[in-house]
Amino acid sequence: MRCPICNYHDSKVLDSRPAREGREIRRRRECLQCHQRFTSYERVEEIPIWVIKKDGRRESFDRTKILRGLLTACEKRPVGLSELEMIADAVEREIRDHHFGEVSSRWIGELVMNQLKDVDQVAYVRFASVYRQFTDIEGFRQELEKLLHPQVHQEG
Question: Zinc fingers (unnamed) span which residues (predicted)?
C-alpha cells in the first residue's frame, strides 16, 4: 500500500479490525519510509448495480450520492454524521440484498425517506421536497399530513 504522504510503496499494518458491519476491514498502517500513520479500508468488490433514473438513463450506484443528499437535508439539524452513515449503509445493504443488476432511483429515494423519517422529521421533509420536486406549498402540506396523521395514509 502506497503512503498517501510520501508515496513510498511499502507500509506495515499496525492494527486490523472489521468495519461497516463486517463488510470492510479497517487497517491502521505505518509508512516504512516517513513513519507517518494512515488508515486504509479493504472490502470485497461488489457486483455493480445500475440505477435507472426517472428519464430512463442508467448510471452506476454510488453510495456517496445518498450520503450527500442526507448531509444536505440534515444541514443545521441535530443529526450526527455517524447516524447518516448508518442510514446510507442500511439503504445500500437493502439494495444489494434484494436487487441484482438494476434498481430504480425512485425506490432508492423511498428507502432513504423511510429511514430519515424516524431520525429527523424536518430533514425528512427537506429531502422529500427535493426528491419529490415540490412545486408549490400543497406538496409540502400533503407530506406534512402524512407525518402528522400516518394512520390515515397507511389505510388509504
Answer: 3-34
